[in-house]
Design brief:
flat
């Protein structure tokens, strides 16, 4: 992934990837303060909490009528 100097930026790679793949995507992550600053801050437990939420979501069975295809 390369940001060209003649194009605007300011988004995450998620929307760019979603547009190129043509499949449903969800761009998520942990919150942080001061992105790209010398004092970028994020909670130490946030990554693990996100992992636990995603693991629980992926282990749940799909609802009837909500099958892909």
């Amino acid at each position: 992934f390369v940001v060209r100097s003649d194009m605007g930026c300011g988004s995450t790679i998620g929307p760019i990837t979603a547009g190129n793949l043509g499949i449903a995507t969800l761009d998520i992550g942990v919150p942080q303060w001061g992105m790209h600053s010398i004092r970028e801050i994020a909670g130490t437990g946030d990554g693990f909490t996100l992992f636990r939420v995603l693991r629980e979501f992926m282990e749940r069975p799909r609802l009837p009528g909500n099958q892909p295809g």
